[in-house]
Design brief:
Layout (H helix, E strand, L loop, with lengths): L9 E3 L1 H31 L7 H25 L1 E3 L13 E7 L6 E5 L2 H4 L8 E3 L4 H6 L7 E5 L5 E11 L3
Parallel strand pairs: 1-2, 4-5
Antiparallel strand pairs: 3-4, 3-7, 6-7
Helix pairs in contact: 1-2
């Protein structure tokens, strides 16, 4: 397995990585067996065109298989690390506060992967990928600086970095 590049890596804490491995093992093992059992039982009932249980099980199977593909990809690209050092420089795994040009409000978000936040339901925070236009523009920058980037809509935007500290959950 090759190492993911900075552009493709998904930053995860060890705890988030381990939780995703457990979820993947469950989906590929007991969950697959259970869904297959429900599909087989529904098939035995006869006409599949009007069999709600069959269609529900097939839809669940489809969603489960899609999640397996997503998890395998994410785990293959995972860059597992501890909470970033408090250097003041923006990097993956940091809680960043910014102010968009022309706006008096600030926005605080995690620069990393959404799965990190899934560990703590009490945290209500946006997540930006380090590979996103905003994330890649602020990576390696320090508070007090202003950077410009092109939003997915094509609009040119500027953001002032106000704070960058390790995300502690």
């Amino acid at each position: 397995m090759s190492q993911p590049t900075a552009e493709t890596a998904v930053w995860l804490t060890q705890e988030a990585f381990d939780r995703l491995v457990v979820e993947l093992e469950h989906l590929k093992g007991p969950a697959r067996v259970e869904i297959s059992r429900r599909i087989a039982a529904a098939r035995e009932e006869g006409d599949l065109r009007e069999n709600g249980g069959y269609h529900a099980a097939r839809e669940e199977q489809s969603k489960s298989e899609a999640r397996i593909v997503q998890l395998e990809d994410m785990l293959d690209r995972a860059q597992v690390g501890e909470t970033s050092a408090d250097t003041g420089v923006v990097e993956a795994g940091m809680q960043v506060t910014v102010r968009f040009e022309g706006d008096s409000d600030t926005e605080t978000f995690l620069l990393g992967a959404r799965e990190v936040l899934a560990l703590d339901d009490s945290v209500d925070m946006s997540v930006y990928s380090p590979q996103s236009p905003l994330g890649s523009a602020i990576l390696g920058k320090e508070p007090g600086g202003t950077v410009s980037f092109t939003a997915p809509s094509g609009k040119q935007m500027s953001v002032e970095i106000l704070d960058a500290k390790p995300f502690t959950g």
